User: Fold these one by one.
Assistant:
Number 1:
Amino acid sequence: MTDSKYFTTTKKGEIFELKAELNSDKKEKKKEAVKKVIASMTVGKDVSALFPDVVNCMQTDNLELKKLVYLYLMNYAKSQPDMAIMAVNTFVKDCEDPNPLIRALAVRTMGCIRVDKITEYLCEPLRKCLKDEDPYVRKTAAVCVAKLHDINAQLVEDQGFLDTLKDLISDSNPMVVANAVAALSEIAESHPSSNLLDLNPQSINKLLTALNECTEWGQIFILDCLANYMPKDDREAQSICERVTPRLSHANSAVVLSAVKVLMKFMEMLSKDLDYYGTLLKKLAPPLVTLLSAEPELQYVALRNINLIVQKRPEILKHEMKVFFVKYNDPIYVKLEKLDIMIRLASQANIAQVLAELKEYATEVDVDFVRKAVRAIGRCAIKVEQSAERCVSTLLDLIQTKVNYVVQEAIVVIKDIFRKYPNKYESVIATLCENLDSLDEPEARAAMIWIVGEYAERIDNADELLESFLEGFHDESTQVQLQLLTAIVKLFLKKPTETQELVQQVLSLATQDSDNPDLRDRGYIYWRLLSTDPVAAKEVVLAEKPLISEETDLIEPTLLDELICYIGTLASVYHKPPSAFVEGSRGVVHKSLPPRTGSSESAESPEAAPSAGQAAEQPAVIPAQGDLLGDLLNLDLGPPVSGPPLAASSVQMGAVDLLGGGLDSLLRSDVGGSPAMGGSGFTAPGPAAPAAMGAPLGSGLGDLFDLTGGVGTLSGSYVAPKTVWLPAMKAKGLEISGTFSRQVGSISMDLVLTNKALQVMSDFAIQFNRNSFGLAPAAPLQVHAPLAPNQSVEISLPLNTVGSVMKMDPLNNLQVAVKNNIDVFYFSTLYPLHILFVEDGKMERQMFLATWKDIPNENEAQFQIKDCSLNADAVSSKLQGSNIFTIAKRNVEGQDMLYQSLKLTNGIWVLAELRIQPSNPSFTLSLKCRAPEVSQYVYQAYDAILKN
Amino acid sequence: MEAVPCRSVRHHQRASPRLIGLCWPRVAPLELSLLKLAPWVAFLPCDGAVMIHSLFLINASGDIFLEKHWKSVVSRSVCDYFFEAQERASEAENVPPVISTPHHYLLSVYRHKIFFVAVIQTEVPPLFVIEFLHRVVDTFQDYFGVCSEVMIKDNVVVVYEVLEEMLDNGFPLATESNILKELIKPPTILRTVVNTITGSTNVGDQLPTGQLSVVPWRRTGVKYTNNEAYFDVIEEIDAIIDKSGSTITAEIQGVIDACVKLTGMPDLTLSFMNPRLLDDVSFHPCVRFKRWESERILSFIPPDGNFRLLSYHVSAQNLVAIPVYVKHNINFRDSSSLGRFEITVGPKQTMGKTIEGVMVTSQMPKGVLNMSLTPSQGTHIFDPVTKLLTWDVGKINPQKLPSLKGSMNLQAGTSKPDENPTINLQFKIQQLAISGLKVNRLDMYGEKYKPFKGIKYMTKAGKFQVRT
């Protein structure tokens, strides 16, 4: 007699049969029928047609039958809202049942039914249940508030449920407290600004007390909530840490990891001199190690988090290298993560052991793992200088195994070792050359060719070796072709006499017989260099190169700090901030580590400080695009960038390409760089990128930001002309230009998408990063037909301002991600503030006076608007078009004074006084606002509107 | 200009999503991450307040045989992303536990040849979900004896009721099996028969008493005629031994499992002879942590029945004794198509105890066609398809060491295999905790009767590997 019998009736008349059984008079038969219905539901069959019949069974004394009916209701209520309302009375009645189990069950099920009509009836029973004498009912009701909030947030606020929920934090029962915290954090997460979980020392104390008593799951909620608290000083941080530490011994790994998060975060506030700091460090290691003896899935998540922790505080696990050694029957995803951490922990002290292990792994069966193990050896060499020699000899041993893929990987990493330690290990080149013929992967071939070119002067038969590759030049991949070209040029510069023919050959292959633009361009550059000035060519091509950096794989420090705040979450598994995958209004508040309060301030975590190698590479870090754009705007007034003073047009093209390509590769190599590092010394190549897109160099910039070019429309606010936001070369052929406009109250982003690639583009989508005013697309990006090559499409994307808010710098910076079938692209742009000026921005006169007086004088900002020849009335009407309203006009000593007001979409009022002297083309604009940081942008808007 | 370095060439090829100015990570030149992010990372929508949205159970052949939704129904087509990953992975064990899809994340665990796939829509601690899934598996096992597809299908209604009871709106409601069993009675043959005859149900209609007391893990009113408390100290050795026989890593994963059947509300204390061994421990929630911190005594009101009181981890190398050694001589000769194979197992540090249940397994290289071996004791099997050699040794007699000798037939004409086989060892030692942990005494307070107490020790091999 098992439930499998319920699966057996799969005949056509099944539903009909069930219907009859459900309406049977016999209780037992009814129950069996409902069970069959549930069984069908579990395997994904649609049994929603039975809704009325099942609901009829709801009024019963039999608890099991009631539960089963409730289960059914939760599944199908949404699809049958009108029917679901039939169940309401029973629910309300059950909420009054003397049995707390039934009361709780009813309120819980009602909350799961996402039908508006039911929700209305839920409020009264829920209110009672929140104050129920039985804690089981209270804790269920607490969760129900979160459910209801998800369905109808306004209703929950209006009914005062949030306050009741807050009161439950002080409940006598720890389970109720835990669920109240869970519900509140759930709600707070969807409303980041609501400040629901008002954490203060008292409430923290309550939470810490509840922490000791509630269930493991409740502990997770409480710990995650604690992690959001910012202790006022290091003493408070320490006392919280002390009370959280016992959680490290919990059997539930999620509790442990949440506790680790709290500790890692608050540790930031403790002085390193403190004894307690050292104690805490010691306490963190064992639980992390223990996580690794859990099931593989848990291990995987733990390892991803440990990866962050060892980057932030390597001292915690520096003696625990061995637990990361790979067991041969670990799942592959665990193996790879362990390998990564092994490299991070590698140091002079343990390198011998690590290398022995890595060598062992290189003989395993799994090809992917073996390859990564070989690469890891190379990374060790680059990371730990003292070990380089041993690494090289290990790699040589591996090459001797003659296992094809091992040899190829080894050669790729040896190339990197040469780039880190030039002129040290050239003796191995002979061994490498022996394996030349077995290399069949492009990356390995390219690496080998690079080595031959780089050390051509020490390899007697370098010309023969390279020549052998040249035979099949056109069959090679681009990577190999480029490498071969460069290597032969290097060889020629080193041994010009014997290799002239070879270089001729490769140059003609690259330029005349190839249609790859990269290859052709590089070929031409070399060719011209060599033919114009061989000495200069030598200096350029053979110049000493900066050494490669050892820690290119480290997560960038600000991101790392943010991720530390998200230990234990999906963000920590993906090593991306939640903003990367949490959409829209549910945006997560940006978290950051607390500042250290102690005195020993200066160099926090020296390991994270940039090493010498990184410093050398710093020029490669470009400023964040926002800054670049800012620079572009400023450049508008400066001298135009002129093209290279070369006559031959083909040469000019080459040069432009060089610049563009260089910038491109720089951009790619470090777009994630912290904005703080930007802004310096990189302004010149910046503008070249868009300019290279085809506009004549000299005037390109002028055109881009020529503010006289556009004509403002009369019906709405001033609209700036479209500018290129995303040049095609940065977006695999997709060019985006656009502008912002506001017409009768609606903001839109007017875009032109141009396909400059050779393939059709489709599946467009757009997304904004959080921004200062919550701008967000109000509709998806609709490109109706696929965009054919060389086709453009104009789209007006409606925007709203209900997105999630994060203050940007500059304030009007907007970061946009656009996706198509090829890739995802990112750019940022500045929107003119006047698109946010709302139509009802006209203030009452009295109100204006009062407000003007009320705002403190230090909030007043003065600006000059130069070269504007309009008279006061013209100014007034022009501004009105963009929702800047003139409230009063006065004439004082021959000057016209305009008093104006405007309101931003987020309700900020800005008051303005505009002084216009008839003889003087410069106006003086004084702005007063409670949020003075917007003033500058308001001024920019004035300036733009008035000059167009 | 420098030759385009290969490093940056790789960058170009792998342009993963990066939002300028948002400080996304630089792409490591050598990304060891297995997570191959879809180019468009799943953007989690903003409407879900549910932590675990849905659960799918999938068998090894890729059939979804059960689905449970805690909110609206998520189409089972979401599992296609899982199937894709399953296809990519060579073995079921290698399916990555976190998979991103355009609108959901799939977190999965693989146990008893079943994938438990949770669908989530919001940022949820993944460990939370994975721990919960493991708890689901344990509960099924507890309820039905075994956790298998057949068993689950046979008890689908109970399964459904249990799942509903375990989670409410994504918040775990009742995961202690003691409490669950009071809410939903586990099926027994007797009860099924009785239910059918009398029409009674397997759903409890009383609120479990433990649910909200200060000791949520214990119900009140427990009564036994024989009061007994048994504790099993079980230690597993995880070790990697290198070719020459020296230890690369060795650690002990220990647990104390208890079976306590005591009347009323007993309050127990357990003390050790050498508590200092235990510096890395995880306790059952019943253990009073303060008392442990200050006195190194385990003080607790036990749950009723079977539970894991404590798990611990000993990693200090000098404390981990290695009880067995393996002498091996595995030789693939280069030119000939015959190889030699010889292993001997012997006791090392066993504190005078016998090693039993010894089982040797080794995954031989592909090039090995067959093996003709003679064991001095026990039985052996070589599967020429999977290339797995299994030798069931049994007990080790120190006077006459077990050995397995013979030759291997290698594929002719190929060079010798690249990888050396690793030897995997299973064994058991009764009445010994290899770390030396010893219970000093067990006392009971709060109740008047005299319970029967018992303590058992056992050492087992965990992941015990010998490289050759």
Note: The CA atoms of residues 359 and 392 of chain B lie 5 Å apart.
Number 2:
Amino acid sequence: MGGSANGATDLSSEMEVDAFRRLFPLRFHERHLVESVRPDARPLGKARETSLALGAVGSADGSALAKIGCTTMLAAIKMEVMTPATDAPDEGCVAIDFHMPAICSPIVRPGRPAEAAPVVSKQLSDTILSSGMIDLKELSLVSGKAAWMAYLDIYCLDADGALFDAALLAAAAAFSHLQIPVVSLNDDGRIVVVSKQNEVEKLKNKPVNEEKRKLKLKGIPFALTCILHKNYILADPTAEEESIMETLITIVLDSSCQLVSLYKPGGPALAYESVIQDCIALSRQRVRELQTILNEAISDMEVD
Amino acid sequence: MAVDRADGRTPNQRRPVACTRGILHRAHGSASWAQGDTKVIAAVYGPKAGTRKNENPEKACIEVIWKPKTGQSGKPEREYEMVLKKTLQSICLLNVHPNTTTSIVIQVVNDDGALLPCAINAACAALVDAGIPLKHLAVAICCCMAEGGHILLDPSKIEEQKVKAFVYLVFPNSMVSVLPQGSLRLGGELMEHGIITSVTHGMMAVDDYFSCLKLGRAAAAELSDLLRSSLKLKAGNDPSKAG
């Protein structure tokens, strides 16, 4: 294998595919795009295979494991009782945190937090709170004195592109699986969680129903990330595609196809109106797919 | 239908802009940008030798540091840094000075709504002041959807908190070209109508987003004319400043 880089077109017939993929990644991908296909044989507008498992973490009040292709996210919710803020006495609170431990990717080192982690974390908080999926008033226990604080932690176990999409799906699934624990007021006037042994004792006060409660979720948001490269729109990129073609656009729609977020943080390609319309059409399709997957996962849980 | 805004502006009116260049003498380039009461100072240092560890050495590297007005830097600041870095990377000519780092430091002086667009405009003006090679400027504005379905341009902090959704949009600046009209179009759309960056908060209908885009484009074209006149070289600019 000799010759300079200028002779790449001659070398390509002699070079192994893997070597060409590493040495000339952009040309490797563009050769595929010309045929309207991607290296993993997906058509341009198709997302990777998605699966959901609810109740992955036994000790959490609500949890879910979401996989989009190889990207894996584990979401878990723990509920704690706290005093609500004075300006919102009958509202609870949701704290969302996204972690990228070193297991998820070779570029994340143990000592230094990944650059993407705080950005995805903030994006997630903004999206979940602004979509109105959770009614904070449902998290209230005693107005002005006690309310639920839901700590949602999302761990990325494998980072292979489209991190925000998978994280949002895992968060929505975890909230669908969430069962709020039963509580009562004890002698000191504090709220305590009712454990199995106390059930036979007479409860002094029952601020919540005896059954463990589920949250009513309205307008669950679903996201689709696309890459814009020249005239092509690639839906649901892998980490390799994201590192080569840098322009990403993330569209979050809720189940009634209202736009929750359209996030395009710069990038070499400009987004024209026609391109945005196409991305929104792809997102609408994806919302329907994800809604079906979520409903199936919920009904599988209920059968158990 | 006339909508009453607290400061008496019409829905399509942006706040008065004050842009000053060359305010910091040690920085290679600096600018202060004020939109109404929102004020941001940007300083550019570079190109400096060497890139950070995992960055491509064949291109110049852009680094952004965002300093809030009070308190420590947290997640919102990281997000602003990332959006600013990606936006500025797309307007700089990265191949002119490979294996160099250009640092842009943003200091928030006052936040009265539309902070990120103000910072992007300030950073662009500072880059021009430093003489960093750019493809075109990035012109940023903010549009919001008020309760009644009206679209307001350039909201203040109080308006931003009351509305149900707002959008930060960044467009390339408008072109003044000697080439014939048709050659600037790509697939029937003018290059300056493409969006470099879009960040939304809150829910809105898809059609509302496109109306915000239209209003934003018109405002960006007007703002880029203002930029063109204010960023022209002033007589008495000290040529030996950089270095």
Note: Residues 32 and 41 of chain B are 4 Å apart (CA to CA).
Number 3:
Amino acid sequence: FSSKNSSYSFFSCCLALFIITLSDLECDYINARSCCSKLNKWVVPEVIGHAVVTVLMLISLHWFIFLLNLPVATWNIYRYIMVPSGNMGVFDPTEIHNRGQLKSHMKEAMIKLGFHLLCFFMYLYRLVSKIAPKQQRDCLPAIISSIPLV
Amino acid sequence: MSAPAGLPPRPAAAAAAFSPGGPGSSLEAAAPGSGAPRCQNGPMQSQMQFPSGYGSHLPNYSAPSGHYSQVPNKAAASHLDNQYRASYYPGYYSAPAQNVMTSVGSNVLNAQESHQLYNNTPPHSGGSSDRPVQGAVSSASYLHVSAQQSYSAFDNHYSTSVSSSVASQGFPLNSDHYAMPVVSGAMYPNVSYPPVAAGVVYGQTFTSQSLPAVGQFKETNAFSSQSTSVPHSLQQHVPVGYNTTLSTVSSAQAVQDNLSRNLTGSVPKVNNQINTGGIDSSQPVHSVSQNVPFTKPGAGTSAASAVMSSVRSPAPSLSSKPPSSPSVTQSPELALQEALDSSSTTSSASPVLNNYDALEGGGYPETRSVTSSPVPSPSVLQTSKASKPFGYGYPALQPGYQNATPPTPVQPSNPGHHSGFQHYAQQYPGVSQLSSSLGGLSLQHSQQPESLRPVNLTHDRNILPVSSVPAPVPNLNSDLRKLNCSPDSFRCTLTNIPQTQALLNKAKLPLGLLLHPFRDLTQLPVITSSTIVRCRSCRTYINPFVSFIDQRRWKCNLCYRVNDVPEEFMYNPLTRSYGEPHKRPEVQNSTVEFIASSDYMLRPPQPAVYLFVLDVSHNAVEAGYLTILCQSLLENLDKLPGDSRTRIGFITFDSTVQFYNLQEGLSQPQMLIVSDIDDIFLPTPDSLLVNLHESKELIKDLLNALPNMFTNTRETHSALGPALQAAFKLMSPTGGRISVFQTQLPSLGAGLLHSREDPNQRSSTKVVQHLGPATDFYKKLALDCSGQQTAVDLFLLSSQYSDLASLACMSKYSAGCIYYYPSFHRSHNPAQAEKLQKDLKRYLTRKIGFEAVMRIRCTKGLSIHTFHGNFFVRSTDLLSLANVNPDAGFAVQMSIEESLTDTSLVCFQTALLYTSSKGERRIRVHTLCLPVVSSLSDVYAGADVQAVVCLLANMAVDRSVSSSLADARDALVNAVVDSLAAYMSTASNLQQSMLIAPNSLKLFPLYILALLKQKAFRTGTSTRLDDRVYAMCQMKSQPLVHLMKMIHPNLYRIDKLTDESTIHVNDRVVPQPPLQKLSAEKLTREGAFLMDCGSIFYLWIGKNCDNNFIKDVLGYPNYASVPQKMTQLPEVDAPSSERTRSFISWLRDSRPLSPVLQVIKDENPAKTDFFQHLIEDRTEAAFSYYEFLLNIQQQICK
């Protein structure tokens, strides 16, 4: 679980990066070209990472979590596959300003960030509840306080 | 003030064609040609003179002037299709106001008069309204003469109006009313017209003003040259009206009906019924009965003025005034006085006048008063012209609107319905009359209701206008309208902006702008000043629509921030006076160009750099384009835009890439071959791009040698990608323009492509694939180029599939342009060869702007969300244009983010910052101002159908690439269905069984059908993929005028051109044949037809065409001897030949690319092309227009 937690914090960071970069673009701090090349670099790691985690869930027979992750992972893969051949990646600098794409990317990143944060705390809870019975109850606050370091 | 007192300035006004500015217009004399636009100038503009300092910055423009209208008449013709009326009309229109202005300027300067105007006493008002009437009458009557066709087209309506109460003066005004939509394009200051003629009218109308009414009216009419006196014209026309109307009686009855209803006290109806409705409900009958007699005596003006006065004044004055001509003679004086007052307020330096807030504040109570007492007093309206820039047109209109709908249910279905329409028609003229008589240009009063007039699409077969479709005029106060940007440069799909997104959604029409920012303008105010005044928060450039709060502060019209007026701005170089910031040229013109300081440069302005990348593979040599290109280049080498730093270079490629060392000092050009195409490098980076002037001889040598250098090549491969990479490397230090000539699918190195087209799928009705690029190589390259300020222009001359969808990316995102010549061959396809030649000439010599960026700003609350055109969107609203050319058009879609309830105007500003070919950094700024409306019917009234269709075409292209062609087609059909359904549901009383469209949208289904049958979107007909993609590229990058011709070509019958309804352009007589429906039913074997498709003219000759025509115009004895591939008309000395040629050359002059003429006989293979453009006919794969309408109707009913 701790590995999963760390992977989720990785996703969250990744999405936070997405959001920050996109809002930079929205505010005109960077231009579309650099924004998209920056973001496209992270699309593949995100897709792979999420797929791996999802598969791991399946392997470790955590059905509920697996099902929770499956739609998001599927969407990620679908999005990656459906990029038209002429585009420069999921984020295309020539299209990002058109038809509200920037906004929809932003929205998507926000939703996923929320999802990952939710997952993160859920796993954390489960991690804690799994560890806690084995150890002494009074360790719990210490564990919780150390969570941000995980 | 007495009439004589008003006289002295008039001679000046008579000369106003040249210097309407009156005093202080000395500069005008230096540029006589620039006089014309003055006539249109609003009151404030009339003061505008540019000191020579301004003019000196105009190397590219013919004359310095406050206006950018085309002064040479020829040029004038070039931008408007309806030049004639368009060009004359405004002159007459503005004449009264103008004259008044000039006289005012020297006489009265009382800024406070405006208040007094509100409290006008009846006689005054009568007088004041009289003044403008003249303008209206003269213009109207003139139009009668000039616009016979439009007149006849509207017979019905005329007749009703004639039969109606407003008779005598209603008549000419009606004509004016109807001609108006045709003319409306003319409202913009850039429309030019023969200065002398306008001047004459000017003088006449004005001087005659002090004369007794009858004489004066005669004189104005005399100008119109058909009928010398009013009675004649009236009596001529009245019977016509009666004879030609279908249902005069019924309409008359309708009138009666209305009148009786009026009597019973339905006040708003009365308003419209009688001109402009300044009359109480009890009065209309009086006024009617009084006016009618006047029709006969022919004292048109007196009657008019009588009506005007009656309109304005309370009942007693009504009865006393009209009959006496003395009273009329008196009224002009008063008119003058009045006019002086009102105009003095405008021309005075009072800061209040430009202050929208103050005006707005003032405007609203007025509005309320109008609505509360449903009698909009014309005098109030008039004063409002002087003092209230906006908020006015609408209130006055309201009754018209209210009136427009209620009568409808009364109408029975079939013929009765018609009479219903006439009924409206007859109501509106009153409004139009008032507005036109207001001496301003407030045509919207009539235009709005007219544009809302319901048209039964399935019944009315002739919906095409006589001449080309004009752009609707925004419903603004005349002052603002005069200042507003030309529709040629800047158009909005909805000239009435809906207040909220909800309202916009309800209207189901797209909201967007169509821009042609770098259009060739013959006149453009160029401003040099060390500080360019801009809003501190939103960076908007100061423009005519800002408001000056006081002398030292101005309020931004986009973000409403209050800014300081810089010290320098207080000085007006125009009048050399201090303290008149609102008279600066920036504030007087909505299109201006600034010379930018070094703040606007990231690096020193780049030189003009041109690089030609030429395909020299076997295929290319076989096609023979090199000869044409080299020839063209040799001819135009000196005309290439640039300065002494201009540089030029050449790269050729087949399976290798060849560079040419043209360094000065070499005895002959040196070819350097790089065969390592996987890792391309520049052999001698310094000497490949050379100074054009220093190495001219070498360049000429190369161009002479080039066509023959590769004649025996056996290389069939094409390494386009590597050649482009090399070109990019070569250009990246400076930026500039790369022109790529490609004749086949690139087959080697980076960016190689494979054939994706399946010829069997060409006529598939299902899926059209491969509309998008196959690789991102060209896109990336384009973005790299764009980043280095380099644009790539693509000339694709291929006979087989070349994957334009992929190749086009290199131009699309680098702000280049795309030319495509399918099945090009120098000798086998002379039409294409000629086209290439002409295109190249234009391409090489047209203006060019380098390292450009364009930003579109709009009033807070609106936001731009999608851009169409060739460019790269660098950040939310910044378009990066490596090059900008005068033939590039752009479109943007907008949404309304915040409700616009607290504003009555919205503005859009386009700023294009570019480096001219002379190395100057310049900013061209266009500002468009539009009113905000809150009702759905107003939104429909302001719909600009051409702009809507062009924007939809752009959206459909996006849709077909991102989704599928079928989706895009469905979306187009749905656009019509939804908007018409929404319209019909607003006018719920309309019969659901009929397909009704507002007049403003009556062409919408036709245009959409034309779009569906356009190469880009058609299915079922065999269309090559490249052709389709090219059509799509054009839709994205063509300006509106060209795009409209492409979508819906103009068809004229030219075998019977007569001298009737001709126009004079540069002492040539140009006949004006009426537009024909695009239907084979219009083609007769006895005729000859010219189809103007924008880039090509088809001249179709019927089998039994008159031999005289064939002999005179084509130069052949009979039909059989006319050759198949004829592309030129011989110069035969016969009137019919002269007419035809002058008509065709006039059409050609109106566009930058001169189109190729193709003569089509019955058995010609090009015949199919011609017939494909007859979009109203049914084809094997598509609906006819009527079927399409039925289909729409069905979908609406569903």
Note: Chain B touches chain A through 25 residues (CB under 8 Å).
